[in-house]
Design goal:
- The protein has 516 residues and is mainly β.
- Helices cover 3% and strands 34% of the residues.
- A five-stranded antiparallel sheet has the order 1-7-6-5-4, with helices on one face. A five-stranded mixed sheet has the order 2-28-29-30-31, with no helix packed on it.
- It is globular and about 65 Å long.
- The two termini are 17 Å apart.
Length: 516
Amino acid sequence: MNPIRSLAGLVIAGLLLTGAHAYAQQNWPMYGRNLRHTFSNSASLINSDNVASLKQVWAFQTGDAVSASPTIVNGVLYVGSWDGFFYAIDTRSGALIWKFQVDCDNTVVPIPPQCLAPGQSPPPRFFTQGGLITSTAAVAHGNVYFAAGKTMYSVDAKDGSLRWKQVICGNPEQPACATDAADPTQIFSSPAVFGGMIFIGHTAGADRYRGAIEALDAKDGSQRWRFEVDPILDAEGRPILNAQGRAIGGYNRGCGTVWSSAAVDAELRLVFFGTGDCNNGPAPPYHESIVALDADTGLPAWVYTPPDLIAGCDQDFGASPNLLSFGGRRYLGEGGKDGTYYLLTRAKGELVWSRNVVFGGSAGGFFGASFDRGQIFAATSLGDGNIATQDPTTLCAPSNPADTFLQEPSMHAFAVSDGGIVWQQTQNHSVAPTSVANGVVFSGLIGIEGFGLNAYDARSGKLLVRLPMSGSVNSAATPLEDYLFVTAGTSTDGSGSGVFAFALPASEAGSEVAAQ
């Protein structure tokens, strides 16, 4: 659809060009800030001495929850909402620059008001996995790339005009699959842009469809390659391949899910993803695993599946990989829903160490991590089973005393060198990646302990301040210069939704802006 503009495109063009060099080190252009997913900014002016003085300086209200992290390039913040709109916002004033309405996709709940039929009541949303736009945008070469439902979009960063859009099919063999209104495919993966390609994963979650990993051409959205996470196997359990070494297809049984966002090693030209479960199990060869793919061909370089996963338990990799370097060596780290963080060699996927901190489960374990100065920082989520009903039959392993509905500790710092626990904290249940600003670790809260964003001293783990919010914080905060940008919104009802800017006292501007 056509973008709705509140300011002329020339305004944002000026913002993009003026002082571009000054902003060069103060951009956050993608999920994790870079292709290594550091989620860190050591040049931030926020530190452990002044973080408690942060004050909210503007709020941009959206029509529903925002679970994407703010992407910021040259003074413009780009983010999408469950309300079905993608926004460009001025970082200093919080003023809307432009917004873009995405296509309706009514397999995704909640359904925005503009997508409901006349007289149609909104379907229940208590168990939603996420709205139309859930993941973080990437900005590269003046273009914005983001996902909404099962569609990838590319728009012009200056004015939001559409460059291209591409529907991702959960059953690509079906004729005209792009027009299948029943296809429940959803893209939770944030796009990674490298080598003229966009890397994404997607989910299916219903019989007759499947998830996968895809590389799209950044120029027009056409498919470069597709990697089948749930490939058709031969009698010996090996993928059946064509002459080019690719799987001939996949099983349409609702598996092949990928929640993870790609990390990319530009030198090795490898793309890394974590994968989901298949019917609560690590169905071979690629479920509940970390996979490394050749960036140019999509062919697998290696796969690592933890050896101690429990059949019948939801222990997939919902987090995204971190690419770490330490002691002159290159590693890959990723936490799983089994409550374990794994460090592997990057080139071959060999286990270096693993550290378990909680049992994990269907609503537990790791959902993302940051790293800085030899340490990894990550929160864990609730736990296992149905915390609302406390029904023990919903637990994966009820005879295991560690398998509980709410698990502690819930905030963790590891040493990259050996996985040793540097510090831990409680009452920090989160499904958001952490982020680091000059010695301060930020972690958003689901809401079990109240809504807010916790700030910890990276060295000691001391809680420095909790910034109050009015909704769940389900994404990483973005620290740039003397500002901190946070998104929020409660999944069950959309309360507390929007984008919020905090600043150190000298930068307080004081305004509140509602989406128009």
